[in-house]
C-alpha cells in the first residue's frame, strides 16, 4: 500500500486496470496485457505505429489515414520522404508541417535523401546525426532492441554467476557449465551484430515497408510505361497515316502535272497549226494583192497609149 500511495497509478484505456504511467503505452495508454492481445502495427500509408483496438479489425491503416482515404481518395508518394501519404498535393502532412516550421528539407545523413528537416537543436538529433523521420524511427527501434538484448545478456550472466556459486562442490558440473557459458558468451557478439542491424532482418517491418513501397513504385512505373507505349503506338499510327496521305497527294500532283503538260502540248500544237494556216493565208493574200496591182497598172498603161496614137483633124 505504501508503494501504491507513493506512486500515482493510471487506468488502462482497455481493461481499466491501474498501472504506473511508465508501464502504459504512449499512444493508446494500454497496459502490457492489452498490448500483448492487441499488437502494435505500422500504418500502410503514414508508417506511424498504432495499437489495434479489436481482434476482428486487423486493418493496417490508422484511423487518421482511413478518414483521409474516405475524404480524398488513395494517396500518392510524397516528393520528400517518398512515403505514400500525400493526400493533398505532392507532400505528406508530416513533411508539409515540418517545412512550415523548420524551412526547406535537407539531406538525411542515413538514407542520403532530401527528406530531413533541421530543427537547429542538437538534442533532437539521434546519435548526433541529422536524420529524417523514417531513419530516426528505425534507429530508435534498433537502439531499443540492442538495449533490450544487452539487458537480457546481463541477466543471463547474473543467473549463470549465481548458479556457479551455488554448485561449487560439483567440479565436473561447474566445468561443464563453464564451457556452456563460454559458448553462450561466444555467441553474444553475433547476436549483438544481428540486433544492432535490425534493418538487415528480412522479417522486420521496415523491410515490409520498403517492399510495399517498391511494389507500388514498380506498379506506377509499369503504368507509365504502358501509357508511353500506347502514346508511341498512336504516334506510329499517325505517322503511317500521314505518310500514306503524303504519298497519295504526291501521286495526285504528279498525275495532275502530267495532264496539264499534255493539255499544254495539245494547245501549243493547235496554236502552231493555226499560226501556220494564218501565215499561208497571209502569203496567198499578198500574192493576190500583187497580181491585182499588176493588172491595174497594165490597164492604166493601155489607156494612156491609145490616147496619144489617135489622128488629128484640120
Which features does this protein show?
about 325 residues; mainly alpha; about 60% helix; rod-shaped
Walkthrough of the structure:
The chain is mainly alpha-helical. It is 62% helix and 7% strand. It is built from 7 helices and 8 strands, in the order H-E-E-H-E-E-H-E-E-H-E-E-H-H-H. A two-stranded antiparallel sheet has the order 1-2. Strands 3-4 form a two-stranded antiparallel ribbon. The radius of gyration is 54 Å and the shape is rod-shaped. The model is unreliable at 1-5 and 182-203 (pLDDT under 50).
Helix/strand layout:
Blueprint lengths: L1 H5 L2 E3 L6 E3 L11 H6 L2 E3 L6 E3 L11 H10 L3 E2 L6 E3 L6 H10 L3 E2 L6 E3 L16 H34 L4 H26 L8 H104 L6
Antiparallel strand pairs: 1-2, 3-4, 5-6, 7-8
Amino acid at each position: 500500500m505504501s508503494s501504491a500511495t507513493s506512486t500515482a497509478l493510471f487506468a488502462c484505456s482497455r481493461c481499466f486496470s491501474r498501472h504506473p504511467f511508465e508501464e502504459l503505452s504512449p499512444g493508446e495508454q494500454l497496459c502490457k496485457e492489452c498490448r500483448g492481445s492487441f499488437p502494435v502495427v505500422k500504418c500502410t500509408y503514414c508508417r506511424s505505429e498504432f495499437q489495434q483496438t479489436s481482434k476482428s479489425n486487423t486493418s493496417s491503416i490508422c484511423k487518421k489515414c482511413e478518414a483521409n482515404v474516405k475524404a480524398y481518395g488513395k494517396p500518392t508518394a510524397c516528393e520528400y520522404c517518398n512515403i505514400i501519404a500525400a493526400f493533398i498535393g505532392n507532400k505528406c502532412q508530416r513533411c508539409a508541417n515540418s517545412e512550415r516550421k523548420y524551412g526547406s528539407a535537407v539531406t538525411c545523413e542515413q538514407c542520403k535523401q532530401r527528406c530531413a528537416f533541421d530543427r537547429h537543436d542538437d538534442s533532437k538529433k539521434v546519435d548526433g546525426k541529422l536524420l529524417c523521420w523514417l531513419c530516426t524511427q528505425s534507429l530508435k527501434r534498433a537502439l531499443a532492441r540492442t538495449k533490450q538484448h544487452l539487458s537480457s545478456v546481463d541477466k543471463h550472466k547474473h543467473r549463470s554467476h549465481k548458479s556457479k556459486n551455488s554448485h561449487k562442490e560439483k567440479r565436473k558440473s561447474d566445468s561443464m557449465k563453464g564451457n556452456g557459458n563460454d559458448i553462450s558468451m561466444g555467441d553474444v557478439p553475433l547476436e549483438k551484430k544481428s540486433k544492432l542491424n535490425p534493418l538487415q532482418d528480412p522479417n522486420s517491418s521496415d523491410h515490409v515497408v520498403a517492399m510495399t513501397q517498391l511494389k507500388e513504385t514498380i506498379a506506377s512505373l509499369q503504368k507509365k510505361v504502358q501509357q508511353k507505349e500506347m502514346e508511341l503506338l498512336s504516334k506510329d499510327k499517325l505517322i503511317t497515316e500521314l505518310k500514306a496521305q503524303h504519298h497519295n497527294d504526291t501521286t495526285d500532283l504528279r498525275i495532275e502535272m502530267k495532264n496539264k503538260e499534255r493539255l499544254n502540248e495539245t494547245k501549243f500544237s493547235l496554236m502552231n497549226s493555226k499560226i501556220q494556216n494564218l501565215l499561208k493565208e497571209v502569203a496567198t493574200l499578198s500574192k493576190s494583192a500583187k497580181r491585182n496591182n499588176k493588172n491595174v497598172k497594165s490597164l492604166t498603161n493601155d489607156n494612156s497609149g491609145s490616147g496619144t496614137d489617135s489622128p488629128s483633124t484640120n
